[in-house]
Design a protein that fits this description.
By secondary structure, this protein is mainly alpha-helical. The chain is about 45% helix and about 0% strand. α2 (about 35-40) runs antiparallel to α4 (about 55-65).
């Protein structure tokens, strides 16, 4: 969101620790590890695993963490 001018800061709005990127949120953000575990069976994902996920499962995950803009 920072890169496209939608946010002034690039810090993750969920964990406030790392830069907010799609990879950070989908794979490693500690603030949503439990939600990832519930949705995907793992708290931390490898980017190659995300590539294999169905789009609907990704959208369901984003809805579950209440992240409307990514």
């Amino acid at each position: 969101m920072h890169r496209i001018g939608k946010r002034q800061e690039d810090t993750c709005r969920l964990c406030m620790e790392e830069s907010e990127t799609a990879q950070h949120i989908m794979c490693e953000c500690p603030a949503v590890a439990r939600v990832r575990l519930n949705h995907f069976g793992k708290g931390i994902l490898d980017p190659s695993e995300v590539e294999k996920l169905a789009p609907k499962s990704i959208l369901d995950f984003l809805k579950a963490i209440d992240l409307k803009e990514i």
